[in-house]
Amino acid sequence: MSPARRLRVAVLAGGRSSEHEISLASARSVVAALDPKRYEIAEVAIGRDGRWALEAGPDQSGHVLVTDTKTGPEETSPAEAQLVPQAGPDRSGHGLVTDTETGPGETSPAETLPVPAQSGTLEAVGAVDVVLPILHGPFGEDGTVQGLLELADVPYVGAGVAASALAMDKDLFKKVMRDSGIPVAAHHAIRLGDAIENPFGYPVFVKPARLGSSVGITKVHGEDELEAAVELAFR
User: Fold this and answer.
1) Are 61 and 94 in contact (CB under 8 A)?
2) SS3 category, 101
3) How many angstroms separate the most distant Cα atoms in the chain?
4) Helices H, strands E: what count in the chain?
5) Predicted model pTM
6) DSSP strands (E only) in 57-98
7) Model confidence over 121-169: pLDDT tens digits?
8) Are strands 7-14 and 130-133 parallel, antiparallel or unpaired?
9) In CA terms, which of 32, 102, 197, 227 is 20 to 30 Å from 8?
10) What's the CA gap between 60 and 127, in Å, rounded?
11) In angstroms, how far is CA 162 from the centroid of its own chain?
12) How far apart are the first and last CA of the chain?
């Protein structure tokens, strides 16, 4: 009896948010916990500039997530690198590969999604069975990557687009919880251009509405600290 095929798992880490390093640490823990006998792991690093590249590893050396877009024999165009769904040769699953040609020198824009690629990435990682988006903060857990993967018809782990987007915005999430009869802590939302007011007295906590991991949070003890705390949260 032939051995069972390992599931090919792409682990996304890093990203453009201020929680880049936290994401990398989380991804390292996830990869360490995956059984290499059951899973073929592709570690995809997303840089602070948003460029995608496959981390070198013993089983996938030389492979990358995104690939050459016909700009030259050893060149890539970051603006044109693509992430598209495509089945691999040995499985009917889903893929993160590039350049679905519809004819000589042609591509179908409807079948491509723009993903900035690290210069020099020349091979596609091939088909994957599932993506683990171990990303923190904006462009990771706010529904954007989830939407990208759904457009590419690639299965992924975690909440979907709507739930991710809603949960990322603390103000909107609290409103939905409150309207559903679930108790929430008192809060006051301040938007750009609003007067900076505190209806609660002191001390209070000021925090960004769309960040996590305690980024941008300040405990404010008095009126003289409030404006600086709000400016930090907006940063």
Assistant:
1) no
2) strand
3) 73
4) 5, 12
5) 0.70
6) 82-83, 94-95
7) 334 445 678 999 999 988 999 999 999 888 878 889 999 999 999 999 9
8) parallel
9) 102
10) 13
11) 15
12) 59
